[in-house]
Design a protein that fits this description.
Order of helices and strands: HEEEEEHHHHHHEEEEEEEEEEEEE
Oligomer: single chain
Number of helices: 7
Structural class: alpha+beta
């Protein structure tokens, strides 16, 4: 886009813009209210400019180690002029183009054959609305579009009496741009044996005479062209700086957890929006603006209860300990409730399954029986549960771990898990 400066264009822009008067002046120290000065070399907006204040932003992190977070930051709120411009650029598109390549052409000398063919008969006897389809069926490689063009331009009004006459008709149509030269190549070279035979020109014997020639093929190529797109431009006209202090309270976070609270501040120093990412939902509790100094209170309104992680089980084993079948669970201690969650309990509910094995040492699926059910409280990194089972039995344990009455986790628990099998002595 050209640089446009001048009184007439400036006046036109001023009339079209309801928000600002746009003019061009050199050596102007600052903008007066409602007037935007374009410096030399700047482009005049293509569309009507829009002037508005853009909210400033800040983020505060709180963690389980410091759940009562406080942060003071400088927040800049900008007044921006935005407009759209048409940008032109070189682009590429794919197009089929005729490409000339060196090759070999074939001429035929045939002792007989004057075009006696059922396909020609079908073409010349077809009604006018079916002639193009009949020609497409008769000539291999001609195609529907080229067949329609040939019929519309009056080609093949009479039947060619020889292959040479047929070749002349196709070549003339290509020279006059009725059909593409690549189509002529398809008909006369690529499909020459099929066409000379089915159109009735082969006769008893034909002699093929080859010669060097230029052939035409259709290739997909990348073609440059000038494309355009609408782009957004912006320029800062004014700004306001606020010293913003955010105090966060009420967060329920474990030591390894963290929440990010994000705020948008408008041109008056007020909170325009509040969002959070993490384990709690937050709401604005209070805000006070004193000049450029802003104090904001944010309070957690509820904890988002989350499921237990399968990674909490560090190791699981079902083995003999002092000749007693024993389930041993090693647990990540961060999932074991402490004083921060006084009513919570980490519970394992389990079912011992057994079957009596015979001389094969195996148990069928339907032979497993629930032998015993029980529950235990997990209070340490390792929990061992010893069970009594009959001799000469194969046993396994199914269990589920749940953190109940928790302020931090939901009560659904992990999916049921199944241990390996062990055999008691005979």
């Amino acid at each position: 886009m050209k640089n446009l400066f001048g009184g007439l264009l400036v006046a036109a822009m001023a009339v079209g813009c309801a928000h600002n008067e746009i003019t061009t002046m050199e050596n102007v120290p600052s903008n007066k209210p409602g007037v935007i000065y374009l410096k030399p070399g700047e482009r005049t907006p293509a569309g009507e400019p829009r002037v508005e204040w853009k909210n400033g932003s800040m983020s505060v992190a709180v963690s389980g180690k410091t759940p009562e977070g406080s942060s003071t930051q400088e927040v800049i709120v900008n007044q921006e002029m935005t407009w759209t411009e048409t940008e032109y650029f070189q682009d590429y598109r794919s197009e089929y183009q005729e490409v000339r390549v060196p090759g070999t052409c074939s001429d035929f000398e045939c002792s007989a054959g004057a075009g006696k063919s059922d396909l020609w008969d079908a073409f010349y006897s077809a009604p006018s609305d079916r002639k193009a389809a009949a020609l497409d069926a008769a000539i291999s490689g001609i195609g529907e579009v080229s067949a329609k063009n040939l019929v519309a331009k009056g080609y093949f009004k009479s039947k060619p009496r020889s292959w040479a006459d047929f070749t002349r008709e196709i070549t003339t149509a290509a020279d006059r741009n009725v059909i593409k030269r690549s189509v002529a190549t398809m008909v006369l070279e690529n499909n020459r044996y099929e066409n000379i035979t089915k159109l009735g020109y082969a006769g008893n014997t034909c002699k093929e005479i080859k010669r060097s020639c230029d052939l035409y093929i259709s290739q997909l190529v990348q073609v440059p062209f000038q494309n355009s797109r609408e782009i957004s431009r912006s320029r800062i006209l004014d700004k306001k700086a606020f010293n913003v202090t955010v105090n966060i309270s009420g967060s329920l976070l474990l030591p390894s957890e963290q929440d990010i609270v994000s705020l948008k501040i408008d041109e008056f120093g007020k909170v325009a929006s509040l969002d959070s990412n993490g384990y709690n939902n937050y709401a604005l509790a209070a805000q006070a603006v004193n000049g450029n100094n802003v104090v904001i209170s944010v309070k957690a309104i509820n904890r988002i209860l989350r499921p237990l992680s399968n990674n909490m089980i560090l190791k699981e084993s079902y083995v003999f300990v002092a000749e007693k079948p024993t389930l041993i669970l090693d647990i990540d201690t961060q999932y074991i409730p402490g004083k921060e969650d006084p009513n919570a309990q980490l519970i394992v509910d389990y079912t011992v399954q057994a079957c009596e094995y015979g001389w094969t040492g195996t148990c069928g699926f339907s032979e497993w029986k629930n032998l015993k059910q029980g529950s235990a409280i997990i209070t340490a990194a390792r929990t061992s549960i010893t069970v009594d089972v009959p001799r000469k039995h194969k046993t396994q344990i199914k269990y589920r771990i749940t953190r109940k009455n928790s302020l931090y986790f939901d009560g659904k628990g992990l999916n049921v898990r199944e241990t390996d099998e062990i055999k008691t002595a005979k």
